[in-house]
Design goal:
single chain; 384 residues; Growth Hormone, Chain: A; 19 helices; globular
Length: 384
């Protein structure tokens, strides 16, 4: 059920990406203006997680998570009432703030219910749901938009969120048993400073931010890339993006188990390198089928990095896992938002320039990770 909630939240976040060209034509605006709808949701989402993590530690995970899922379902449904791009942006900002208590707290539950050396598989399920939501949001968003219209997409997604809430209700007592910590509001700042005060915390959160910028920047604008390079319409774009999320959806738990067994030090550089190679391949004059394969490999790069970073974060929080995971999701979603925003601005210079810039960034991250994460081995003892 937690994976289902994670799936629908990411589905909503990315169902706009492949229909950016169609929405731009509908409202008579530039694609960059419609592209702002993605960071309009993701950045407020990331910022709000900082507060939700603290509230969960004080009030309990179940209370905060259920309230957040209610807000997601209601606000997503209300987005269907918008009559302009500005109104859509407003509703998405509010939805981002309201919905941001679900995914980080699902990750907190994993940290509470599983020992560190066994967290890879359940984290793989959740991050597989994230990747699957991105993939199916992109695909079904493009395929269903001509049938339902963009209003119908938001309405159906909001109703789906409400149904998932009803399915979660039988588990509310199990979720409520997760211990709350308490503390004063001043503990928020102190807790986040402590998390960022260690070398391990700094490198992990830094990589979460930069890696999410890379993946979101490239993925958000793939719809525009496929339209311009191959002349595809919304349905064709959705089908070409279908491979994104498939590796995580199918193999997320296996990747997590491999991380538990062999260590994140070995898998992280490989995942970063795969993302680099896949994005670099899109710079070439590839046939459409080869470009779709590159998109799938790009997704595999995500699945071999962000879940592994989250596994490290679950060991950083100590008695305040909500804050630790809240900061992780803050970095993740702010990176998602900034990546799509920055890529859209650089896109004014051409897709090759924008993509090449992001490839260079990810290549640098991949090379540095070999040294920076060398100590992330199974059963290792860390000095904070």
């Amino acid at each position: 059920m937690l994976a289902a909630a994670t799936f629908i939240i990411f589905f909503q976040a990315y169902m706009i990406a492949p229909i950016i060209p169609a929405l731009a034509a509908t409202f008579g605006v530039q694609v960059q203006a419609v592209g702002l709808m993605v960071p309009a949701y993701l950045i407020p989402y990331g910022i709000a997680t900082l507060v939700y993590g603290f509230l969960a530690d004080r009030l309990g995970v179940q209370c905060v998570m259920f309230a957040s899922l209610i807000a997601f379902a209601a606000l997503t449904t209300l987005t269907a009432t918008a009559t302009s791009i500005g109104q859509i942006a407003t509703w998405r900002i509010l939805t981002g703030v309201g919905a941001s208590g679900v995914v980080p707290l699902a990750l907190v539950l994993v940290g509470r219910l599983f020992p560190y050396e066994q967290r890879g598989r359940p984290l793989g399920w959740l991050f597989g749901a994230m990747a699957g939501g991105m993939a199916f949001g992109s695909t079904l968003g493009a395929v269903l938009e001509p049938l339902l219209g963009w209003r119908g997409l938001f309405l159906a997604t909001g109703v789906s969120g409400g149904m998932i809430l009803l399915l979660l209700l039988p588990f509310r007592s199990a979720i409520a048993r997760v211990v709350q910590v308490g503390g004063a509001p001043s503990d928020i700042t102190r807790g986040y400073l402590n998390l960022l005060g260690t070398t391990r915390g700094q490198r992990t959160y830094g990589y979460v931010l930069m890696n999410s910028m890379f993946h979101s920047g490239v993925f958000t604008w793939l719809g525009v890339y496929l339209e311009r390079r191959y002349g595809l319409g919304p349905v064709g774009i959705g089908l070409a993006l279908l491979g994104y999320g498939v590796p995580g959806f199918l193999f997320g738990p296996l990747i997590g188990r491999a991380a538990d067994r062999w260590g994140r030090a070995r898998l992280l550089p490989i995942g970063l390198a795969l993302g680099t190679l896949a994005a670099a391949a899109l710079l070439l004059d590839l046939p459409l089928v080869a470009a779709a394969v590159a998109v799938t490999i790009l997704s595999l790069g995500y699945d071999m990095t962000q879940p592994l970073f989250a596994g490290i974060v679950t060991s950083l929080g100590g008695k305040r896992p909500g804050q630790a995971m809240g900061l992780n999701v803050f970095m993740l979603f702010v990176g998602f938002g900034l990546g799509s925003l920055v890529f859209g601005e650089v896109l004014r210079l051409g897709f090759g320039v924008a993509l090449g810039t992001f490839v260079a960034l990810e290549l640098l991250l991949a090379m540095c990770s070999v040294w920076l994460f060398r100590s992330e081995l199974p059963y290792a003892t860390y000095r904070q």
